[in-house]
Amino acid sequence: MTSTTSKSAYWRGIRNGLPFLFVAIPFATLFGVVATEAGFNILETMGFSVLIIGGAAQFAAVQQMVDNSPTLIVIAIALAVNLRMAMYSAALVPYLGSAPLWQRVLLSYVLFDQNYALSVLEYEKRPEMSVGEKVAFFVGAATPIIPAWYGMTLVGALVGSQIPPEYALDFALPITFLSILAPAIRTLAHLLAAVVSVTAALIFAFLPFNLGLLVAAVLAMITGAQTELWLERRGKWT
């Protein structure tokens, strides 16, 4: 790998990551608004965004804290929402597992839905990429989003109360996940896991402290894993 190819991969990652600013900016702003309205000060609000960089988990944790849920429930819900990051990490091992430890530590911090989806697609499209190029692309895809996430969280925390409600910033959350989910459903296992998760979340919505999300996540993972095992066995038999 040369520095030229690494830089090229990095800038390609930046270009591919730029469109996600259209959802990251209002999403981060909305979190700043929600957190301050929930009673968090600026330092606490920014601490959430800087330490976690996990929008959905941040919203879930804040909501549970507003509802005065037990600490263990708050942690469990946030971990359940972010459990997909563990699956993302496992999926990235074939591509980035041989990178130096310090790089893997950095990548784990900047791992989120958008650059995971972009990177996997890029790696599959360009199998000739070296590990260094893959790391550069991954970091590049995160580069536009992270400063925007920090900065717009601060903006939301400072001026969120002045944003008119008709601007409906909460549209960012469903659009973000739909933009990632749609191209990710490429196998029967993915499809069944998605169907089970949605169905279970609706069925168990009556459970207190949003525990239905935990149930839905577990059932979806079991469904996806069992479907993949069934397909693998079926392939061996045929």
Automatic annotation (TrEMBL):
<protein>
    <submittedName>
        <fullName>AzlC family ABC transporter permease</fullName>
    </submittedName>
</protein>
<feature type="transmembrane region" description="Helical">
    <location>
        <begin position="213"/>
        <end position="231"/>
    </location>
</feature>
<keyword id="KW-0812">Transmembrane</keyword>
<keyword id="KW-0813">Transport</keyword>
<feature type="transmembrane region" description="Helical">
    <location>
        <begin position="135"/>
        <end position="161"/>
    </location>
</feature>
<keyword id="KW-1133">Transmembrane helix</keyword>
<feature type="transmembrane region" description="Helical">
    <location>
        <begin position="47"/>
        <end position="66"/>
    </location>
</feature>
<feature type="transmembrane region" description="Helical">
    <location>
        <begin position="20"/>
        <end position="40"/>
    </location>
</feature>
<dbReference type="InterPro" id="IPR011606">
    <property type="entry name" value="Brnchd-chn_aa_trnsp_permease"/>
</dbReference>
<keyword id="KW-1003">Cell membrane</keyword>
<keyword id="KW-0472">Membrane</keyword>
<comment type="similarity">
    <text>Belongs to the AzlC family.</text>
</comment>
<dbReference type="Pfam" id="PF03591">
    <property type="entry name" value="AzlC"/>
</dbReference>
<feature type="transmembrane region" description="Helical">
    <location>
        <begin position="72"/>
        <end position="96"/>
    </location>
</feature>
<feature type="transmembrane region" description="Helical">
    <location>
        <begin position="167"/>
        <end position="184"/>
    </location>
</feature>
